[in-house]
Amino acid sequence: MNYQVVIKPSAQRQLKKLTPAIQSNLISLIESLSQQPRPSGCKKLKGRQNQYRVRSGDYRIVYSIEDTFLIVRVVKVGHRRDIYEE
Predict the structure, then answer these.
(1) Three-point CA angle 32, 49, 46, nearest 5°
(2) Alpha helix locations (H) across the chain?
(3) Which residue in 24, 29, 39, 43 has a CA-CA distance of 20 to 30 Å to 51?
(4) What CA–CA distance (Å, rounded) separates 74 from 61?
(5) 64 and 52 Cβ atoms separated by less than 8 Å
(6) Looking at residue 86, what is its pLDDT?
(7) Which residues pair with 23 in a beta bridge?
(8) Which pLDDT score is estimated for 56?
């Protein structure tokens, strides 16, 4: 039961701004969400409906899970100081 991972265009732009080493770490983490959308260490974000985050060093991936359609939608990618700002 694999989930389809969809990355928003804004998240793709955020990802491209990062260094290649950080990009490869985050891309492998994003790809792993198709197998396990709620890995150990993921947290549900308070005040946001159905949004989660996973950490990779100082960087965060914010995503939502649609269990009925088996979709993981990556919303934001970035440094921890910038990721939670609206």
Answers:
(1) 90
(2) 9-16, 20-32
(3) 24
(4) 7
(5) yes
(6) 62
(7) none
(8) 93
